[in-house]
Specification:
Helix content: under 10%
Number of domains: 1
Distance between the termini: 17 Å
Shape: globular
Radius of gyration: 21 Å
CATH topology: Porin
Order of helices and strands: EEEEEEEEEEEHEEEEEEE
Oligomer: single chain
């Protein structure tokens, strides 16, 4: 049930299965329909629970994940937020090679990181957020202004991973492998450890501005037990 804008109670969840088969349809000069040889299956989950603290504030939780399999797959880029106005991409994380990725998409939110802090054909993430409409505590009368009535202070915690293969902890995970080339004859394979799980935490604000719901989150990321420099995420849209 919606108590107010971006303030809900209850539980909602969806489990989905998708099957994708690409094809080519031509109408000129002759009509023809040809199915491509590849095939893709997607299985996913998105579950959310909203726990009231009092009549105004809530704790919101989200558990999400998906995996793709078949001759064609989706490459998930973990990190950042949905509808990020000024998105940033991490070019330092290697992308799996020699894989038939038919599509690419984002797996969000993991605040405190750029997009592509982890990647692969599977992902899992957890979000927790405290939402406090702070100005509603200062007055017993209804707040008239949309800006102040919908203004929320938030604290958040995100954790997630994305991987290629059967497990994010596999030693053959492409995340931990880099190839160095020195043409024409020398190729060096370097193995090292990156923790597949990344964590982000921080604070943010929410409000309605010029008819658009604006989110601003300032987050610190923890990668392989090292706290990263904070990142400001400015995005549009309600919920996570």
């Amino acid at each position: 049930m919606d108590i107010d804008l971006n303030i809900r109670t209850g539980t909602r969840a969806k489990i989905f299965v998708e099957a994708v088969k690409r094809f080519e349809l031509n109408t000129q000069p002759n009509w023809s329909l040809r199915f491509n040889s590849g095939f893709m299956t997607v299985v996913g989950l998105d579950a959310r629970h909203y726990l009231p603290i009092d009549r105004r504030s809530i704790l919101a939780f989200r558990l999400a994940g998906a995996t793709t399999f078949g001759s064609e797959r989706i490459l998930y880029y973990l990190g950042g937020v949905d509808n990020w106005i000024f998105p940033k991409f991490n070019d330092n994380i290697p992308v799996p090679q020699n894989e038939d990725f038919a599509y690419q998409t984002l797996a969000a939110n993991v605040r405190g990181f750029k997009q592509n802090i982890r990647n692969g054909s599977s992902y899992a993430l957890f979000n927790a957020e405290l939402r406090v409409p702070i100005f509603k505590y200062f007055s017993n009368k209804p707040v008239v202004s949309n800006f102040w009535r919908n203004f929320q202070l938030t604290g958040f915690f995100d954790a997630g991973t994305a991987w290629q293969g059967s497990s994010p902890f596999s030693g053959t995970n492409p995340l931990n492998i880099i190839y160095l080339y020195n043409p024409p004859t020398v190729t060096v394979k370097v193995n090292y450890f990156r923790d597949p799980l990344v964590v982000g935490y921080g604070v943010g604000v929410r409000t309605l501005l010029f008819g658009m719901y604006l989110r601003a989150d300032y987050g610190w990321g923890i990668e392989t037990r090292v706290v990263q420099k904070p990142i400001l995420h400015i995005a549009l849209g309600t919920d996570f």
